Amino acid sequence: MSAWSATELDALGRTEEIEIAALRADGTLRKPVIIWIARLDDGLYVRSAYGRTAAWYRGTLARHEGRIKAGGVEKDVTFEAAELALHDAIDTAFRTKYRAHPVQYVNMVLTEEARSTTLRLNPR
Predict the structure, then answer these.
(1) Confidence (pLDDT) at 2
(2) Domain segments of the chain: what residues?
(3) Dihedral angle computed from the Cα positions of residues 80, 83, 89 and 95, in that order, rounded to the nearest 10 degrees
(4) CATH 2.30.110.10 given to domain 6-123
């Protein structure tokens, strides 16, 4: 697995929203959706505010691959379940980054259901 460059980490860590599209089983990309992203150290993480039933999240389960685009970065990625031990720190990263947003929206990515969808994005 390759690593994110410092420039990519900075750009994606600063951006408010990313476009994310999962690969279908046949190798084509799904329609991109816009979601929030949080950076924790050298990792980039996303969650489904609507839980496991969100179409974009279910799409990540087909091949565990996709593409993201934001902050001048467009990259093919793999989706990996985040380590449970990191969930509290990822919560803090989301709270800190999105603190200017209404609390009801921030809280949507902090529920147990949303936490259960936490994915680490790895460049490929």
Answers:
(1) 62
(2) 6-123
(3) 40
(4) yes
Nearest alpha-carbon partner for 76 in 122, 38, 42, 118: 122
Residue 36 confidence (pLDDT) above 90: yes
pLDDT of 104 higher than 90: yes
Cα(2)–Cα(49) distance, integer angstroms: 28
Give the CA count within 13 Å in the CB-facing half-sphere of 8. 17
Dihedral-angle region of residue 72 (phi above 0 means left; psi in -120 to 50 means alpha; beta otherwise):
left
DSSP string, 14-52: H-S-EEEEEBPTTSPBPPPEEE--EEETTEEEE--TTGG
